[in-house]
TrEMBL record:
Bias (Acidic residues) ranges: 183-202
Residues covered by region (Disordered): 153-202
The protein's name: DNA-binding protein
Domain of life assignment: Bacteria
Organism listed in the record: Streptomyces flaveus
Listed Basic and acidic residues bias regions: 166-181
Length: 202
């Protein structure tokens, strides 16, 4: 089927009814044929249209839908139920034209979005850790592990117990020297005197 022949006869009427918004079920009932046959006729007509013409027609139709959508959207937002139904019908038609009603394109779109969000989260975590350079390698790994568990909906690992800190013993000799300095006493003088006494005893 080529040229204007695709718009002649019953098939032409089916095509015109479809592009005017009639459902395949309604078209099938009107022409007393099966819904499957309506789908075959529509596919045959689509296939007969050159690719360039289909692309141009699709762009024009999308622009028309956008104009219609902008016209009824304010009323739908204001609470007009009829306008809301019109908006839903336009959106459904637009989704079919863009093939957004198919499961596979939607799944791919969601996967790409998740990949993008994951990359952004990773960059944000890296920037946050870089802003605290005093963190050790172990602390950075622990922070990233906890963040990953949270994103996956898992319980973050328990924080590691802090390493024991040994308390430094007071340096009595240092305190003694400070005391001697405060009193004007030479701390080494007593040591020399003790050494002399030891020599006399020998």
């Amino acid at each position: 089927m080529a040229g204007p022949e695709r718009l002649e006869g019953r098939n032409g009427r089916i095509w015109r009814a479809y592009i005017l918004g009639a459902t395949q079920e309604a078209i099938a009932a009107e022409h007393d044929i099966s819904r499957q046959r309506v789908g075959q006729v529509l596919e045959e007509i689509r296939s007969s249209i050159p690719a360039a013409d289909r692309a141009d027609a699709a762009l024009v139709d999308l622009e028309r839908l956008d104009v219609l959508l902008s016209g009824v959207m304010p009323a739908a937002i204001a609470g007009d139920t009829q306008a809301a139904r019109a908006v839903l019908a336009i959106l459904e038609r637009r989704a079919k034209m863009l093939r957004l009603d198919l499961e596979e394109p939607l799944r791919v779109t969601l996967e790409r979005r998740l990949d993008l969000e994951g990359a952004l989260i990773g960059e944000a975590l890296g920037a946050a850790l870089d802003a605290v350079p005093q963190l050790s390698h172990e602390q950075r790994v622990a922070a990233l592990t906890a963040a990953q568990a949270k994103l996956l909906g898992e319980e973050p690992p328990a924080p590691a117990a802090p390493a024991p800190v040994e308390e430094s013993k007071p340096d009595l000799m240092d305190d003694y020297r400070k005391f001697c300095e405060a009193e004007g006493i030479d701390p080494d003088e007593d040591d020399d005197q003790e050494d002399d006494d030891d020599d006399d005893e020998r």
